[in-house]
Design brief:
The chain is mainly alpha-helical and 86 residues long. It contains four helices and no strands. The termini are far apart. Keywords: Membrane, Transmembrane, Transmembrane helix.
Length: 86
């Protein structure tokens, strides 16, 4: 709980971006290209957010950056395959 209190702005920013992402997906439901653009944009935002968060904590390492990239790639892959099938 102290982690959330310590970095409240960071987590509020991430949650707000996630909510906007879900709202955008709902608004543009059926528009496959726009859905994919929003998905990719959120994945890129997530990577940038993770790097920023760890820079502020002075705990950024290559391993952490790779972890955020892999999680974002997994999100894009699963959403593209499961939720946005052709």
């Amino acid at each position: 709980m102290t982690e959330i209190k310590k970095h409240l702005f960071d987590y509020l920013l991430l949650v707000t971006a996630g909510i906007f992402f879900l709202v955008a997906l709902n608004i543009f439901k059926g528009e496959r290209f726009l859905e994919f653009i929003f998905l990719t944009s959120f994945a890129i935002f997530y990577i940038i957010w993770g790097v920023y968060h760890h820079v502020i904590e002075d705990s950024l390492h290559l391993k952490i950056v790779i972890e955020y990239i892999l999680i974002a790639f997994t999100l894009v892959f699963l959403m593209k395959i499961i939720i946005f099938p052709n």
